């Protein structure tokens, strides 16, 4: 009996090795801005007007449904992305939001942006963190454009474009 139980357990474990699905991905980048944290935070937490510094967004439409706030980003290169605000914490200077759907090769994408004091009172560090999965949730073969590399490239492109524009926007004020 012990041998049968051991055999069944071994077979179940062997099958679970191959049934792993996608692995979580993460992009985390930061930028130093020559402005006080309070000044930077006022811009970063303005969920409704991020198109002022998001270089790939031509328009934002904001909707409130129940207790949830959503924004639809119209992308300059075509397409739309729907995001939901998950929270704004003024004490921690942290805004959290997620991609609900849209023309990006990521799934289950949760992001947050924090603002912290830099080396002096007139310097801030903004950090953008995104956690997500590739679009294709099943095991290989993975369709082109729905793989981990495509998801990472897309999120890196978003953050790499946005942070310098945020810096430029705030420092030019």
Explained architecture:
28% of the residues lie in helices and 39% in strands. The chain is built from 3 helices and 7 strands; from the N terminus they run αβαββββββα. About 4% of the residues have low confidence. A 7-stranded antiparallel β-sheet has the order 1-7-6-5-4-3-2. By secondary structure, it is an alpha+beta fold.
End-to-end Cα distance: 76 Å
Strand proportion, as a percent range, falls in 35-45%
Please give the number of β-strands.
7
Q: What general form does the structure show?
A: globular
Largest sheet: 7 strands, antiparallel
Q: Show unreliable segments.
A: 11-17
SSE topology string: HEHEEEEEEH
CATH class of the domain at 23-46 and 88-171: Alpha Beta
Q: What percent of residues adopt helix (DSSP H or I)?
A: 25-40%
Mean pLDDT: 91
Protein structure class: alpha+beta
- Report the total helices: 3
Give the second-level CATH assignment, the architecture of the domain at 23-46 and 88-171: 2-Layer Sandwich
Could you tell me the CATH topology label of the domain at 23-46 and 88-171.
Alpha-D-Glucose-1,6-Bisphosphate, Chain A, domain 4
Rg over alpha carbons: 20 Å
Largest sheet strand order = 1-7-6-5-4-3-2
CATH homologous superfamily name of the domain at 23-46 and 88-171?
A: START domain
């Amino acid at each position: 009996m012990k041998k049968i139980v051991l055999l069944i357990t071994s077979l179940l474990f062997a099958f679970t090795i191959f049934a792993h699905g996608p692995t979580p991905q993460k992009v985390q980048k930061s930028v130093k801005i020559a402005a006080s944290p309070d000044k930077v935070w006022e811009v970063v937490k303005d969920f409704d007007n991020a198109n002022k510094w998001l270089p790939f967004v031509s328009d934002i439409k904001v909707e409130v449904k129940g207790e949830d706030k959503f924004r639809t980003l119209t992308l300059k290169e075509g397409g739309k992305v729907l995001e939901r605000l998950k929270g704004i914490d003024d004490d921690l200077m942290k805004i959290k939001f997620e991609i609900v759907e849209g023309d990006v090769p990521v799934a289950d994408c949760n992001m947050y942006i924090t603002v912290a004091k830099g080396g002096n009172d007139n310097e801030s560090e903004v950090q953008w963190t995104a956690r997500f999965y590739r679009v294709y949730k099943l095991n290989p073969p993975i369709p082109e454009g729905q793989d981990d590399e495509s998801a990472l490239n897309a999120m890196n492109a978003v953050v790499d474009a946005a942070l310098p524009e945020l810096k430029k926007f705030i420092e030019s004020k």
